[in-house]
Design brief:
Helix content is 29%, strand content 21%. The chain is α+β, with helices and mostly antiparallel strands and 615 residues long. The chain has a 15-stranded antiparallel beta sheet that branches. A three-stranded antiparallel beta sheet has the order 26-27-28. Helix 11 runs parallel beside helix 13. It is globular.
Length: 615
């Protein structure tokens, strides 16, 4: 059985990533890319679907009998140390993946004796294609080699492993001062023997890389520890060859334990564009910001009608969804999905998000040449004809299309940023864009605002709430002190929360009628952590600074022991749920920390000026 979601830690090489449990088990690894098939997939099944455990031996009983466990990342790195204090002594396992350029993916585990003598166990069970294919395993050149189809994995270690029960296992003793390496290398099966990697040299170069990278952070405020850890997490979720950033390294970790809300998040979402760019620019990572912005431009290039809400790490458009029906799912949360059918949805908000990101990048000195401006104008031409259409909205509902308020607000953002660019000398249809901007603004204020309740709603004519309307002051649609903004924030704080945390949108009480919600799905979900950070920001903007600081501290306390957050938190079970770790949780964490201390505000997106008149 897999561990709790929050009991995992992340290691990675900026091409792919692995999840390591508190018990020393690697239960998830896709090679060679984030979106490749998993060769260790116990996370969504059990050990028979692929697992690599190194931990103190325990003859009987639960894993806790192996000793008291603590873990941490080495300073500001992505090198994980898990330490056990046992009756016989103390031992730690150091897990990391050396940053990759063009070489094959490598995963290194070093067992280090700290005190006394500890008997260790290693169980290495590899399964390709998401835990489905048992490889042919043999010994070649002092390595254990697993091969099936296009994949091969080479495991090199001085420890003698014995084949048993379709796995390789070993018991060995580590004494104080001893270090025992295990080096895992994936390579295409037709290429033969990969180069050997010295585990200790790799540890030194990996340490140097991460400490050097983290030292570039320009933010030095009171939340620097949380910000740097979140930035490292975002860097780990970056596909280095292209600059694309995946939403998470996992698929099908459930939003509702035992339910069907299980999605593949190993892709790059356009909705994250501006907040990603802002987080990187405001902390000094201009190179990463530029790479993300360039990925964005390449991904959406082509006919504006074909812009998608998400893409593969290299800009791939075909992300067909299918089900790995041989996997039972995390805690029997089925189905396990690979690919994401939401790729074919119409989400008009992404046009505003893209144009906002491009103009924000231009303000920071990034390329905004005639080609880029032509691309922006093509997006605007499409939006001129389609902004008034219903869509699936930011939350990718699988129900009917509606006139979502957030989508209309982001269409306003697109034309607002275009007007600003034209005012700065970019040739275009400024008067028409200004007219459309004002038309959308008036329509949203008329049809998307419930005057009786004093709140913007989820879609025109609805009574449901949607956390996305918290972004109205953030994007500059209305100033923070507008009475409609203030009352909306207060209504969301009061009515759209569970255990004090924000839900994405109004949900039915579980078990009341069994009918699909507005999103077309049964069941419910936990509080959405990104939305909770949005509430922190909105509270701060409307002047409720004490409430904002209190909620932010609570959210920081919800990170796991190594500083990671999943997509959601379920107050019913006091557990993190959803894909993990989630970029869309860590990005607003960074943004809020910077906003609370007004760090590098010149790289923020446009905020409407305060006015006692509203707007």
């Amino acid at each position: 059985m897999a561990a709790l979601i929050e009991d995992y830690a992340l290691i990675g090489d900026m091409h792919t990533a692995a999840l390591v449990s508190r018990e020393g088990s690697i239960d998830w690894l896709c090679v060679p890319r984030f979106d490749s098939g998993a060769c260790l997939a116990a996370l969504l099944g059990d050990s028979r679907n692929g697992q690599w455990r190194i931990s103190p031996a325990a003859a009987e009983g639960p894993p806790s009998r192996r000793g008291q466990v603590t873990r941490r990342y080495q300073d500001s790195t992505l090198i994980l140390e898990t330490e056990w204090q046992t009756v016989g002594g103390t031992v730690k396992v150091i897990d990391f993946m050396p940053p990759r350029t063009d070489e094959a993916p490598v995963l290194v585990r070093i067992v280090e004796g700290v005190a006394g003598a500890v008997e260790m166990e290693c169980v290495w069970r590899l399964r390709f294609d998401y835990g489905r294919i048992v490889p042919w395993v043999r010994r070649i050149d002092h390595a254990i080699v697993a091969i099936a189809g296009p994949d091969s994995v080479w495991l090199r270690t001085p420890v003698k492993l014995i084949g048993r029960d379709l796995a390789h296992q070993a018991s060995f003793t580590v004494r104080a001062g001893e270090r025992v390496p295990f080096v895992f290398t994936w390579t295409p099966s037709h290429l033969g023997t990969p180069a050997e990697v010295d585990a200790f040299e790799a540890l030194a170069t990996t340490t140097q890389f991460w400490t050097g990278w983290a030292a570039r952070c320009s933010y030095r405020g009171q939340y620097s520890g949380a910000v740097v850890r979140s930035l490292i997490t975002l860097k780990a979720l970056t596909y280095a060859p292209t600059g694309g950033i995946v939403a998470a390294p996992t698929t099908s970790l459930p939003e509702d334990i035992g339910g069907v809300r299980n999605w593949d998040y190993r892709y790059c979402w356009l909705r994250d564009a501006t907040i990603t760019l802002e987080a990187l620019l405001r902390t000094g990572y201009t190179g990463e910001a530029s790479a993300w912005r360039e990925w964005l431009g390449r991904a959406i290039a082509g006919d504006a009608r074909d812009v998608q809400i998400m893409y593969g790490v290299a800009g791939e458009r075909r992300l067909e969804e299918w089900q790995a029906d041989w996997l039972p799912g995390y805690e029997n949360s089925a189905p396990v999905r690979v690919g994401n059918a939401a790729v074919g949805q119409l989400q008009l908000d992404v046009y505003g998000e893209v144009i906002d990101a491009i103009t924000l990048g231009a303000q920071a000195g990034m390329s905004f040449d005639s080609h880029t401006w032509s691309l922006v104008r093509a997006l605007l031409r499409f939006l001129e004809k389609n902004w008034s259409q219903p869509d699936e909205g930011i939350w990718e509902v699988r129900g009917p299309r509606r006139h979502f308020v957030h989508s209309k607000v982001m269409a306003w953002v697109a034309f607002d940023r275009a007007v600003r660019a034209a005012e700065l000398g970019r040739p275009g249809a400024e008067s028409r864009w200004r007219e459309l901007r004002d038309q959308i603004h008036a329509e949203v204020c008329e049809k998307g605002y419930d005057a009786k309740r004093g709140t913007f709603t989820q879609f025109y004519g609805s009574t449901e709430l949607d956390a996305a309307v918290l972004l109205i002051p953030e994007v500059g649609f209305l100033p923070p002190d507008d009475p409609r903004v203030v009352s909306t924030v207060e209504t969301v704080q009061k009515e759209l929360t569970s255990g004090g945390l924000v839900l994405r949108y109004t949900q039915p009480v579980p078990g009341t009628d069994g009918q699909p919600n507005v999103d077309g799905l049964t069941g419910s979900e936990g509080a959405f952590l990104a939305c909770s950070f949005w509430l922190v920001n909105a509270l701060h903007m409307i002047g409720k600074c004490d409430d904002a600081a209190e909620l932010f501290e609570r959210l920081l306390a919800m990170r796991n022991d190594v500083g990671l957050l999943s997509e959601e938190y379920d107050p019913r079970y006091s557990r993190q749920v959803g894909n993990f770790p989630q970029a869309f949780s860590h990005m607003p964490l960074i943004q809020v920390a910077l906003n609370l201390e007004e760090h590098a505000s010149h790289h923020r997106r446009r905020i409407a000026r305060r006015t006692s008149q509203g707007g």
